[in-house]
Task: structure prediction
Amino acid sequence: MEIREVIESDWPQVWAIIHDVVRRQETFTYDPVMGEGEARGIWIERPPGVTVVAVEGDRVLGTAKMGPNRAGPGAHVSTASFMVYGEARGRGVGTKLCEQALGWAQGSGYAGMQFNAVVESNRTAVDLYRRLGFAVIGTVPGAFEHPTLGRVGLHVMYQQF
Result:
């Protein structure tokens, strides 16, 4: 598996991953009916941020975007988001993407990385982030409307470098 910056020809596969993940309404706060144009505007980062893909051959297995969490006085803290193709889950793709994001942020001089809205029922992601050094620093109770579990909390997670 190789992780590299996204290129234009990757977009159809990246969009398919985003569309599937968002439509399920289990892990992201994005509007489940958002269109391709809106998704592209959200997912493809502008400098200083970057969007990457994890690929095997010509198959996109997952994607990540990373950049400053906020502008101005908050720009010293980074953030990132990750999505993995359904059939590639459980193969370490998310771990590799998160490690890539952490390396990018540290190498870019950020003071830490903050995740603003990790769905608490997404145990795979929460456990992965904890394993890689993140801590839950707060939870907004009932802030995410899960399609089968009802209202669940959204964690704010942070790792200081």
Notes: The chain is about 30% helix and 35% strand. The longest strand covers residues 135-146. The domain at 2-160 is CATH 3.40.630.30 (Aminopeptidase). The beta strands are 2-5, 50-56, 59-68, 77-84, 112-119, 135-146, 150-160.
